[in-house]
Amino acid sequence: QVQLVESGGGLVQAGGSLRLSCAVSGRTSSSYAMGWFRQAPGKEREFVAAISRSGYITYYADSVKGRFTISRDNAKNTVPLQMNSLKPEETAVYYCAATTLASISSRLMRKDEYEYWGQGTQVTVSS
Q1: How far is CA 19 from the centre of its chain?
Q2: What is the residue-wise DSSP string for 18-50?
Q3: Of 31, 36, 56, 86, most Cβ neighbours within 10 A?
Q4: What's the rounded Cα separation, in Å, for the pair 108 and 56?
Q5: What are 94-127's pLDDT values in tens digits?
């Protein structure tokens, strides 16, 4: 069993930056591919970014490419998400997720592929 705890959310002005972090405990984080998702009020949870177990392969939603960066530190068991040039429409609860999925493919962009989820951290972008 693995536990995921997100941190780093908060209030930021449009155009600003935030750095989220996901702390992984219970098992070595390198056992999992990791993803970040977000859910705005009244909307479905959507994919933001994912990273393979090794950290060599990453995936991004088209809407965040060039602005967000996912990484991982397997020694520290953390998965940061650097978010730059934030937009008001990106206000949402951001969730960290882990999957034992072995294949490295676009399947990592699907929320149904993830077995473990954190509680989420609120990100509010003011205009």
Answers
A1: 11
A2: EEEEEEEESS-GGGSEEEEEEE-TTS--EEEEE
A3: 36
A4: 14
A5: 999 999 988 788 899 999 999 999 999 999 999 9
